[in-house]
Automatic annotation (TrEMBL), chain A:
Coiled coil: none
An example molecular function term from Gene Ontology annotations: phosphate transmembrane transporter activity
One of the Pfam families matching this protein, by short name: ABC_tran
Name of this protein: Phosphate ABC transporter ATP-binding protein
One cellular component term from this protein's GO annotations in UniProt: membrane
Any GO BP annotation: phosphate ion transmembrane transport
Residue span, ABC transporter domain: 4-244
Name of the coding gene: pstB
Species lineage: Bacteria, Bacillati, Saganbacteria
Automatic annotation (TrEMBL), chain B:
Keyword list, A-Z: Cell membrane, Membrane, Phosphate transport, Transmembrane, Transmembrane helix, Transport
Family to which the UniProt record says this protein belongs: Belongs to the binding-protein-dependent transport system permease family. CysTW subfamily.
InterPro entries attached to this UniProt entry: MetI-like (IPR000515), MetI-like_sf (IPR035906), Phosphate_PstC (IPR011864), Phosphate_Transport_Permease (IPR051124)
Subcellular compartments: Cell membrane
GO cellular component annotations of the record: plasma membrane
Organism superkingdom: Bacteria
Membrane-traversing stretches: 12-31, 67-93, 113-132, 144-168, 188-210, 257-283
One GO MF term: phosphate transmembrane transporter activity
Domain ABC transmembrane type-1: 68-279
Protein known as: Phosphate transport system permease protein
UniProtKB/TrEMBL annotation, chain C:
Membrane-spanning residues: 12-39, 59-89, 101-120, 126-151, 253-273
Gene3D superfamilies listed in its UniProt record: MetI-like
Example of a GO MF term: phosphate transmembrane transporter activity
InterPro entries for the chain: MetI-like (IPR000515), MetI-like_sf (IPR035906), Phosphate_PstA (IPR005672)
Membrane protein topology class: Multi-pass membrane protein
This protein's UniProt keywords: Cell membrane, Membrane, Transmembrane, Transmembrane helix, Transport
Name of this protein: Phosphate transport system permease protein PstA
Pfam family, one: BPD_transp_1
Source organism of this protein record: candidate division WOR-1 bacterium RIFOXYC2_FULL_46_14
Amino acid sequence: MVKITVAGLSIWYDEQTAIKNLSLQVSEKEILGIIGPSNSGKTSFLRTLNRLNELTSNCKTEGEIQLDGKSIFKEIDLLSLRKLVGIVFALPLPLPLSIYDNIAYGPRLRGEKNKSKLDGIVEKSLKASYLFDEVKDRLNTSAFNLSGGQQQRLCISRTLANEPEIILYDEPCSGLDPISTAKVEEAMRDLKKNYTQILVTNNTKQAARVADRTAFFLMGELVEIGDTTKMFTSPSDKRTDDYIAGRFG
Amino acid sequence: MKNLFEFIVEKAIFLSGAASIIFVVLIFIFLLKEGLALFGEVNFFAFLFGQNWYPISDPPQFGILPLIMGSVFVTFGAIVIAVPLGLAAAIYISEVAPHSIRGFLKSGIELLAAIPSIVLGFIGIIFLAPLLKNIFHLGSGLTALAGSIMLAFMALPTIVSIIEDAIVSVPRSYKEGALALGATHWQAIYRVTIPAAASGILAAVMLGIGRVVGETMAVLMITGNAAIMPTSLLQPVRTLTATVAAEMGEAVSGSSHYYSLFAIGIVLFIISFIINIFADIFLHRSKAMKRRKK
Amino acid sequence: MRENTKVIEKLAFAILGLATLIIIAPVGIILFIVLWHGLPGLSFEFIFSMPREGMRAGGIFPAIVGTLVLTVGTAAFSIPVGILAAIYLNEYAGRNWLTRLFEISIINLAGIPSIVYGLFGLGLFVTFFGFGASILAGSLTLSIMTLPVIITATREALSAVPMAFREVSFSLGASRWQTVSRVVLPNAIPGILTGTILGLSRAAGETAPILFTVAAFYLPRLPQSPFDQAMALPYHIYVLSTQVPNVSLRTQYSTVLVLVLMVFILNIAAAYIRAKFRRRKTW
């Protein structure tokens, strides 16, 4: 079943084009990997899905994106959209709050004050990213005391606490060591049961490990999208082959 | 409910954001409202260029040229003292002083800024005026020079901190380039750093002038308060600000004397407006350099 | 030749150091003089009793209370408006001509001579609104003068909070106000506090803006309402040193000392807050 439909999307920063006339679909509960060299428009695309790039003042967008058949620009309220479409950033970005308050941030925004409900949400979200056992005794300490890998899983938990339907990852492991990366990837595979996930990554091997389907972006254009195994074994475009083989990028 | 609250808060935020311009406009309007009434009976040029300020004689004379000259003399003296000292101190604090005393020196400058001007005026009356009287064998030490010295100290914190900012924002590579070519630290400072910080220094001078022209209480107390055309720094003078402060208490509301003091307010407002616009232009240039550095 | 430049450098640095000393030494000397001559006259009675015999004897209690009341009044108006204005400029305003206009206004507001504020307060609050010379008129006048200081300091504190925190908050579905009130403001409070206290300490020491808007020459009782006139320390110093003959120097010094102490306590508080939170800052 189609979750997201992108049709004729273009993005500019001032006069510079970041995405040119992009169209693609994302199915429900799949992990879509997006690979491509830097400045290929991956991140711009990702940040458009929850309209975060509108915070960048010189950014201009054209085209249509639909979530469950509804336009994210016209039919879904901006704040609800951001609740529905969570994002995990490249660097672990805890808010300057305690671990508990980081997770409870989203629910509290929507007026949740019930202490036992919040406790439940915090525990459930931390368990989903395999962080609960490591931090359960210090939930009220600053999130900055966690290691980088723990912080990144905290950010995943924080996104989950918002009960999104879609989770976006913007190179989530770029700052992490291999063990932390493995833990994050494990969490992502586990989350497949309930969430649609889009993973932007510079690391083609990560896409190969995690993604069901993979899209290859180059200079703002979608070169190829398809089944990950097929893409990595017999890509239909020469450029994809070159990139995966590491001949450029 | 929640959205209504946010709506109200955001309206309050915008209104407060606009408050600054509202107040600037209001201030100007009220000065005009009370000040322009003067020009019904006094010629504008006679006001600005008249050499006699006798507001309560019969007939009164409202020439503010002696007051303008008083302000000019005091300001000139203060700037001549404050700019070289301030420049030197800013260089010393940012480039030369050992790290261990840098914080101490900065606190000293901040402390100077914290002393209320009335206190400096008081010290001026008790120490500075008698001192000047003895040095220059004057009838009274309450002179333009006394005002200049005290005002220099009042302007110094502003001047030092702005020049310091300007020096710190000069890209390191400029200085390092000079040092690499064999210049001594001092040569690098005066050949490279200071010229590169020129707009910041100009901004500091402008804001220093603004501070001095606008200062009221200390000058009222120590410049001797004589509304006559000054010819030397060793004479008593009276500035624009001191005149307003000294005479508003006695001026009858609605009299031409009252209006004339507001008219002086207009002159002061316009002077400070011009000075600040220039200072802002220089500051922007200085900041543009800081951005290039990043 | 090389020797020569070294000597010149030494000489230049010595002159720079001397200039710095010329600026800073008087600060110490002034404080010492004020303490030395002011302390002997400082007593419980001096602080807490009414002036007598045309201010030549007794205490300065009403002037102290007046200055405290004016400072609180100034805070009550200038802090909320100043902080909200800074929030507007830093968090809401786009980069456009209107914002630039607001910024230029703030710069000009900061540069307007204090006596012009006095004239404005007289014209608007005392006369036009009919508050008369009163605590209300004086506080409002001082507030407007303090506003640019608070706006500038708050803005600096707000912009020191990393952009990333705002982005995270928005990404979780927070509105702009939620982001400001839950993430940005709490992390900017130390900076805001420091700047605000410094602004208020300046207001507490100002004389010119209160001359015609509130200050009473001699009023040996405490103010009863916001529409009352009040004595104030800075104006009292002016009066004692220039308007009333034969006031003992000791009384003058002690009055100066009280004002200096009040202003310095505020400054030290500001410095303490700044130092304390700088250490605690985790990002």
